[in-house]
Amino acid sequence: MRFVFFVGLAMLSFLVQAKDYNLLSPDGHVKILISLNEGKPAYTVVVGDKTPIQNAALGLKLNPAYHGVFNVVNTQKQEVDETYEITWWKNRLIRNQYNGMTLFLEEAGGNRKRLAIEFRSYNDGIAFRYAFPEQKNLKEFVIEEDLSEFAFTDDYTWWSANGERDNLGPLSINAAKDPVFAPMVLECANDLYLGIHEAAIYDFANFKIKPAGKANAFQCDLQGPSNAKTGMHTSWRVIMIGQQPGDLVESNLLQNLNPPCKIEDTSWIKPGLTMWDWRVWGFTAPDGFVYGLNTASHKRFIDFAAENNVDYLLMDADWYGPEFSEKSDPTQSAGEIDIEENFRYAKAKGVGIILYLNDVGANKFGLERVLKQFHDWGASGVKYGFMTSTGQAKVLQTRRVVELCAKYKLTVNFHDNPIPPNGDDRTWPNVLTREYCHSQADAKYSYYPETAVSAAFINMLAGPLDMCSGWYGFEGNEVRPKVFRFIPGTVAAENAKLVVFHSGISVLADSPENYKEKADLFDFVINLPKRYDEYKVIDGHMESHITVARRAGEHWYLGSLTTREPRTLSLKLDFLNPGEKYKAFLFEDASDTHFITNREAYQTRFLEVDTESTLTIKVAPGGGASVRIEPINK
């Protein structure tokens, strides 16, 4: 017979009377209260004077099962405060400061099997995971369900990721009916926001978030049973905490919950910009050249990249034949592509090449054999699409791809419903980005400006996103075979997305000729740094707009996006060094720009600014703005 340990809702007064184990954040503002009520574990989260989560169940359904009632046989505490430099990320230096506690549990009856639950309390969130100590009465087992709850004290408003579709929300907890993708963001008060996700997904299936079957509560929804054995632990269940939605975006919590980098020499891992052939097929250049899937087109991309500080060319699907045909061999090129000539030409120009691959070709011709061939040609990275497995198998296949790519010095961009970003780019920094969002024009339809804003506040909590930005030639691009529908937006907003959306590789979706036509606007793009030191969300909300400021050395880069509503933004520059003068280069919507009717109108201007300055920027409906700020005397 199988048993499940599960905790029903109880009053907080009862929880306090039971045996409690309290864990404070380093600044004392966040508290986790852990208890065993009649042998069943639960947790409560207190933030300042608010209690957003109360008496939430902790538990797993295993086969063979735990007896269901536990005693605490030991506890272990730890305090950590360290600062490390990450290979690349939103911030160069990351402080990892938390207080930790592990509860070692033993069944009160049965075979006295043991379980450990690890907790961490940070200033900006909490996390917990399950561990399975080595023991004689438990060796191998199956995790069938994760019964961990997020039991809230009110019917809060929430938003969530939604695969390759527009994000969900705002909705109330009790209106939820079906499992949804993580991350989830909840507005608990005007000064308290929570983000739910998971970190360090390495061995077991990831989860979605589903209604828990009682008021005001969600529960983890494990995406399939997972084989396990003692000595292992689950991924971290994470609750980010902030006063504003932007605090969640700024968080480094997921990185801190992952192990340190496992790649000894990371010098070959180089973030940057890439040209992309896929959406440009069928574009006719002013000189009459028609782009297609051929080496002649790729050389034009490479020439432009070499002249404009763009690091890579991404050769997408079908370069080795129809991508879903088992006859298509990714160790050789097909059609009008001379792959060895492409690499020879790119190397001479100082441009890297990223190659597409999916499970069909990898499984038929051998993943490692294919990746070794990519390495031998001189490829810089892989865009991996359409992973066919699910649940635990998909997680393990993802890990295999990442580790083999690291072995052959290849970066990775996962597309087509990958497992979520989860801070694993700290451990494996060759994972540069994922399409864990509604990426523009993917899935054969377009997203609108409100989706870009919400993705920055929701999807990007998980990690770097491939939004496929950089559209400059909006008019007439629907004739291209890989541009399936009308694309809304403004060219100024496209620049802004390259700042707002954190990504190790920013994919430029348009033709070289369209960028040349707007060279003054593209000046912002070619001057973007490859690596940043700091990331700040200055202002915004999921339902309205976002403004981000990023620093590289003494230079700052600002990006603002709005929904369908026009806005006048007042941006204080108090983050600049006092007493220093700066040049600000602004790339903005024009007075008559509109994301449907006048997408390509823009303006540029220049100002002198300092820490006392406030920039006033008008963004058009569905538009945006970007700003580059440089010290005058340096």
Please explain how this structure is put together.
By secondary structure, this protein is an alpha+beta fold. It folds into 3 domains: 12-255, Distorted Sandwich (Beta-galactosidase, Chain A, domain 5), CATH 2.70.98.10; 272-530, Alpha-Beta Barrel (TIM Barrel); 549-631, Golgi alpha-mannosidase II (Immunoglobulin-like, Sandwich), CATH 2.60.40. Helix content is 17%, strand content 37%. Its cofactor is Ca(2+). Residues 24-260 form the Glycosyl-hydrolase 97 N-terminal domain. Monomer.
Counting structural domains, the number is: 3
Overall pLDDT: 95
CATH class of the largest domain: Alpha Beta
Distance between the termini: 73 Å
CATH superfamily of the largest domain: Aldolase class I
CATH-defined topology of the largest domain: TIM Barrel
Strand content: 35-45%
Q: What oligomeric state is this?
A: single chain
Largest sheet: 9 strands, antiparallel
Task: Supply the helix-strand structural class.
Answer: alpha+beta
The percent range for helix content is 10-25%
CATH architecture of the largest domain: Alpha-Beta Barrel
Based on CA inertia axes, which overall geometry fits? Answer: globular
- Count, helices: 12
